[in-house]
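sorry for the late reply, my laptop died twice this morning and i had to redo everyting from scratch. anyway the thing you sent over, i finally got around to it. pasting the sequence first so we're on the same page, its 363 residues, then the predicted structure underneath. double check i copied it right bc i was rushing
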Amino acid sequence: MGCGTISFSEKPDAAINTAPFSRGVNFSQWFETFNAQEIQFTRYSEQDFINVKSMGADVIRLPIRMHSMTGGAPNYSLDPLLLKFLDAAVGWAEKHRLFIIIDNHSFDPAAPTDDNIDGILLKVWAQIAQRYKDRSKYVVYEVLNEPHGISDERWGEIQRMAIDTIRKNDPTHAIIVGGTDYNSINKLSALPEYSDPNLIYTFHFYDPHVFTHQGASWGNPSLASLAGVPFPANNMRMPKTPDALKGTWVEGALQNYKNEAAFLTLAASLDKAVAFSRERNAPVFCGEFGVYMIQSPPKDRIIWYELIAGMLSRRRIARASWDYFGDFGIFNNQAGKDFRTDVNVVLVRAMGFIPPPQRKVKK
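ok and here's the structure:
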């Protein structure tokens, strides 16, 4: 594989059992509001589904802050407005033969997953599964995005209950399940051996983190002061550790960056998902991967996408990039929205998609 001035070739083992879809994107910042009335439904349209399809995508992951859109205890009834909007999105996906992952993105990166989250989780999934049980095969359920701060044992138990709840209402549609530590690839093997034959196991991939999240303010600690971390590793271009990050895990990661960013290190990490797939005879899915564009070197960002998308493809691991619009998106900047004038063509091609023809904008 060629990545600009570098090359990396491999012939890895592949996942045994592949998902029914292969590559797609996350439609973020749409259903991720704190109530249904805040959803800006016109942020996306049917045309965006058409556009994604034209790039060669076959799946859309739709993050939804479901737990914020209920009437509260004890029934946790989902807001009818959310369901109205979701019906439309599902309809567009089915019309254009795109798989749509209904992703329960009830998620706060700074707060641990509640040990008693099953109280709302099961009520919400009973409603969703009952509503979409008779829809086409293109509908897929994802139990919960990035559980964290909860034990593997407790999460495994809760997720089993969620699977059972969905199956009581919908015996047929695929269900996506994942491990703790923010859907870490290292936590796949900690998952119980669920008996359901129609599960897809997910992980998220943002390695090396100091490259993919440089400039990001929402982590602990904030990486807002970090910029210019290269990919691949290059000692001549490495930035100094910002004062605000000295003494944190980030300083150690920067010191060890040559190893963390090594292609063989990244390949070995993805091979864990392949080994899991072969052991469980089950499909695996990289539900998120991407690079925050604000402070990452643009050319290096493209190299990373080409490398990781290629590694996933060769391993027959389905993938959905984070995201479409936004700070990790496929446009030339985070405000980009015009599919015919503002798509980052080189990036889209590096991701393994077919870039759309671009019109020149008259100035």
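Residues 13-208+266-350 form a domain with the TIM Barrel fold (CATH 3.20.20.80).
thats about all i looked at so far, will dig more tmrw
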